[in-house]
Design a protein that fits this description.
Helix content: 40-55%
CATH superfamily of the largest domain: Periplasmic binding protein-like II
Shape: globular
Strand content: 15-25%
Number of domains: 3
CATH architecture of the largest domain: 3-Layer(aba) Sandwich
Number of helices: 11
Structural class: alpha/beta
Radius of gyration: 22 Å
Distance between the termini: 38 Å
CATH topology of the largest domain: D-Maltodextrin-Binding Protein, domain 2
Order of helices and strands: HHHEEHEHEHEEHEHEHEHEEHE
Length: 304
């Protein structure tokens, strides 16, 4: 029995299927299936009821899953923070949405490792809702995400930045402002699976702007490439300003005042690695202040 096998079992319970668990763990479906088969062989009993499509945990699998969570939490707390905060050490598991602060996060981690060489960072990227579950189940210690649209139980979210949301257009695009660009060019919509997509849609609806949508994509970089080649315009968070500069894209603020999204660090109370989390939040705040990104007054939102 291995930690990987227990992680696969818990992921199936949280995601609802082997396929969803594989996506969450960044593994192939056959790899997750093999881990569950190995676990079943080691324990001598099935963990899944395969009569259903998709397969679901049977009573034995459900019972083991709850115990597996405790084992995984103990495993992740094996490297605890040392008492002296001047010499922080330990493993910090950090989650992040792939669209958030893509230039700020790497710079922050470099500075953090330089200041505290004994810190080990384990990064995990994925969908915000999946990462929130991982945070609440203790599978990650902190999560860098935009402001959640609803209350998050006992999770605390601390804002440290505001990220602009901009219209990006091909080099040399002639529209005078955001509205004219959206009226004159085909529209490439930023994927619906990100919270900011709903914010953008609500903003356009409030202004009565109905762009001519021709495509939808989830990748910020892929959209930038398509815009660069003249396929159309898009509205995206300015998470990577150098990318637009590299491609020579025209950037126009969306709305007056310009639309922004709030970025913060989510955590759950009582984590034994609080000193590490505090150091990460401080680093993110400092890096944001020294970049083009707009710092925001720190504020905390507790769950209800």
């Amino acid at each position: 029995m291995s930690i990987r096998e227990l992680e696969s079992l818990v992921a199936i319970a949280d995601s609802g299927s082997i396929t969803a668990a594989a996506e969450r763990l960044f593994l192939s479906v056959p790899a997750v299936s093999a881990q569950i088969a190995s676990l079943e062989a080691a324990l001598g009993t099935p963990m899944l009821d395969r009569r259903y499509k998709p397969a679901r945990l049977n009573p034995a699998g459900t019972l083991l899953c709850e115990r597996a969570r405790a084992v995984l939490n103990s495993y992740r707390q094996f490297y605890e923070t040392v008492a002296d905060t001047a010499d922080l050490a330990g493993v910090l598991a950090v989650g992040a949405s792939p669209t958030v602060l893509t230039t700020v996060i790497p710079k922050t981690l470099v500075a953090l490792r330089s200041a505290y060489p004994r810190i080990q960072i384990r990064m995990q990227y994925g969908r915000a809702w999946n990462l929130l579950k991982d945070l609440q189940h203790g599978q990650i210690d902190a999560l860098i995400i935009s402001q959640p649209p609803i209350a998050m139980g006992n999770t605390q979210w601390t804002q440290f930045a505001q990220e602009p949301v901009t219209v990006i257009a091909p080099p040399g695009a002639k529209g005078r402002n955001d509205e004219s660009l959206l009226a004159e060019y085909p529209y490439i919509r930023f994927g619906q699976r990100f919270w900011v997509a709903d914010t953008i849609a609500a903003h356009l609806a409030e202004r009565g702007i109905v762009p001519q949508q021709i495509m939808q994509a989830d990748s910020r970089e892929a959209i930038a490439l398509m815009v660069r080649h003249g396929l159309g315009v898009s509205i995206v968070p300015e998470s990577d300003p150098p990318l637009s500069k590299l491609y020579g894209l025209r950037e126009v603020a969306l709305g007056k005042p310009p639309l922004t999204r709030n970025i913060g660090l989510a955590q759950t109370p009582g984590n034994p690695k609080q000193a590490l989390i505090d150091a990460l939040l401080h680093g993110l705040t400092e890096t944001t202040a020294s970049s083009r990104m707009k710092p925001a007054p720190s504020r905390q939102l507790g769950g209800t």
